[in-house]
Amino acid sequence: MIQNGTQNSSFRLYFVETPVTQVSTESGERGKDQAQYFTLDEASVLACGQSAKKFTGDYLKGEFTVLTRWEDARKNEQPCYYACIIKDGRYLSQELVRHGLARIYGMPSSHPLPGNITPRSFLNALKRAERQAQRQYAGIWASAQGTAQMAGMELVAPNTATSTSALPAMAGLNNGLINLNTATSAELETLPGIGPSYAAAIIRKRPIETLESLTKIAGLTPRKVDAIRHLVRLSDPLPPPQTVAFYKRELESYLNTNVTVLVDSIAKIEYNAPETFQAIQMKTANQGQYGGQITCLIPEEFFESFLKHYSFPGREFTGLLYQYQGETVLVHPRQ
Question: pLDDT, tens digit, for every residue of 104-113?
């Protein structure tokens, strides 16, 4: 509930949902669904809901902006409208996810956000924020170690349930940050306040040696630069060996050769695989350093045994690095 003068209005955030704070007839099913999402018990969800409520109250002290098209999120006697809430150039929804206090959920807007950020770009930013929260065991993820949602996270996060410190060096391939010198326009547009015109200006200004030099772009004030400072970097770390990123960095040298990767996790995917093959998405990591992901094509006769064997992270897989339908994939040998 937000009060503006004498008017009180209820809003529900686009794209995200915080956990329920109490069990009732209305919230009971939603609480169960949230517990399933986080693969936790309902008591843990309720505790997170209280934390999210306190975080939101503290975060929104002072001035903030509510953006809404007055779309009713409840369809009952007491309307609740979908909205985005921005404070100091940051979206409340992203901050909740980044602190492990919300799940990605809800009604996706069909309209661009301020700065002409597309809904798809915004959702991608939320997914990056969620992965960061999982790696840091932030918020509700501190209680989720060993669950299905966190499978393999011990390879890319500190081995403690209470850690809320910054990511260790190289915990992610790019620590979840966007490289201003290599990012595409679409990736740059996921940053708060960066629309197509600013993204194009940043690309034209490359190479960018300091963040402060961005203020020479018309309209990019020091305040706007500060709003993206924690989300960007100017160079990438070298990818860890025996990972997808390592081989893709010099793809011409490794394409059509057998390479060995260290498997972080695998997941079944819908994919137009060749006849007699099935596909999985494979994430790779080496000594806690994330190394990218790739589609892996598995002969049907090996598929079930492959799933069982690589359900345990850290195992080696050797396959052919190959181009299939314009995509770089790994192919399980038939011999």
Answer: 876 556 677 6
Residue 85 bridge partners (DSSP)? 66
For tokens 């350093």, name the residue.
Answer: 289
* Calpha distance 1→11 (Å, rounded): 7
Peptide bond into 207 cis (omega under 30): yes
The 10 Å Cβ neighbour count of residue 291 is 26
For 176, left (φ over 0), alpha (ψ -120 to 50), or beta?
A: left
Q: DSSP characters for 82-112?
A: EEEEEETTEEHHHHHHHTT--EE-SPPPSSP
Q: What is the DSSP letter of 240?
A: P
Closest CA to 201 of 220, 187, 182, 186: 220
How many whole angstroms separate alpha carbon 245 and alpha carbon 228? Answer: 25
Measured CA to CA in angstroms, residue 151 lies from 39, 85, 181 at distances of 11, 32, 32
Alpha-carbon distance 93 to 103, whole Å? 9
Within 8 A by CB and 6+ apart from 316, the residues are: 242, 260, 261, 262, 263
**CA nearest neighbour of 282 among 324, 244, 237, 241:** 244
> Does residue 177 contact residue 233 with C-beta atoms inside 8 Å?
yes
CB atoms within 10 A of CB 144: 20
Whether the Cβ atoms of residue 321 and residue 245 lie closer than 8 Å to each other: no
Parallel/antiparallel/unpaired status of strands 316-324 and 2-4: unpaired
Which of 39-53, 103-117, 196-210, 227-241 has the lowest average pLDDT? 103-117
pLDDT number for residue 55:
87
In angstroms, what CA-CA distances link 294 with 52, 177, 196, 280? 35, 20, 29, 8
Grouping H, G, I as helix, E, B as strand and the rest as coil, residue 223 is helix
* CA nearest neighbour of 1 among 54, 58, 50, 57: 57
| The CA-based dihedral angle spanning residues 224, 226, 231, 236, taken in that order and rounded to the nearest 10 degrees | 110
Q: Is the model's pLDDT at 166 over the cut of 80?
A: no
